[in-house]
Design brief:
Layout (H helix, E strand, L loop, with lengths): L3 H12 L6 H6 L1 E7 L2 E8 L1 H4 L8 H17 L6 E12 L7 E12 L3 E10 L4 E13 L4
Antiparallel strand pairs: 1-2, 2-4, 3-6, 4-5, 5-6
Length: 146
């Protein structure tokens, strides 16, 4: 069952009515599409700001993009009384990026169990070239009142 309050919040992120998190802004990430158990996040890569010592896009930036999209996809299915924690994250980095570009991460929930969920993401370039594949295991947690 889709959480309408969270989905409304996500829609407002897409339209710009709500600001992105500081971390998403720092990396140039923007939520562009949300569905029940799915999310698409785009990242404008500024290679000068996000390069590793070899001059290529840092793998952590690609991982953050995949993780961000998977987290939103999973959160879209949880009730207001729950949040989640990532208990495992795996990524295969398949293509080196060494220029400014736009990357797109499409995430989908594969399993939404009573306590554990599994989400996958595919990160691509605009032309569809796959840059990375990622999978995450998430644990549902009660929302803390503190």
């Amino acid at each position: 069952m889709t959480n309408s309050l969270r989905m409304d919040h996500f829609q407002k992120l897409i339209t710009g009515e709500f600001p992105q998190t500081a971390y998403a802004k720092l990396l140039g990430m923007q939520l562009t599409k949300i569905g029940s158990g799915t999310a698409t996040v785009e990242m404008d890569v500024n290679i000068l700001q996000l390069a590793n010592p070899l001059g290529a896009l840092h793998g952590g930036a690609v991982t953050s993009l995949a993780d961000h999209s998977m987290g939103i996809a999973y959160l879209s299915l949880l009730p207001d009384t729950e949040v989640f924690g990532t208990i495992e994250l795996k990524i295969n980095l398949l293509k080196m990026i060494n220029t400014d570009c736009k990357l797109i991460s499409h995430a989908a929930v594969l399993k939404n169990g009573k306590s554990i969920g599994v989400v996958e993401a595919t990160v691509t370039m605009l032309d569809g070239t796959i840059v990375a594949k990622s999978i995450s295991t998430c644990m549902r947690l009660p929302l803390s009142k503190n």
